[in-house]
Amino acid sequence: MHWVPIRLYREAVKQAFFEPRQSVLALYRRYNAPVRRLVEDWWDHISDSARFSQSRDLIAKHHSALKPGDVTLVGLIAEGGQGMRTANNGRFLGYLSGTPKAAAVEAEREVWARQWVRHPRIGPVFARLLHENGGNAARPTANVAAWEACIEPSKSSSLRADSDSGIPNRPLPRSPRDASSH
What we know:
- This protein is an all-alpha fold.
- It has nine helices and no strands.
- The two termini are 35 Å apart.
């Protein structure tokens, strides 16, 4: 049994009820206030497909204002009347820090970064993108948000994954620790 103040649930996004374990409370403290503000500001624009379509320009402005590490609503970054599909949503997902999956993601990120820094065509562009996003080419994965901010521009630029570029054609999920530490 847990003894918690009732305001915890009254102030929760959509007054959600949850077990107040330490890990859940940590998420609540980190995300409840920003998500509440986002829901208040955006829900009328994304509550259904018709409203989303009518608000496309406003939503596009929101997209362009997002920076690595920002919190937003899935409904603002994923289109469609049927919810999130499972086909290519890896860039929206993460792994719990300290788990084997998170360690595998971090190891893969290190391998890719080393390959890109050494690549004759990608290295200079990757270093420039890292610098523009607050990272450092000498330690490319130290600032994970900066590293991630380089991925999509690298994939969509003239460096589009040729056979030896090493730019992944699939997204690399983040661990929540990475997203919240920047």
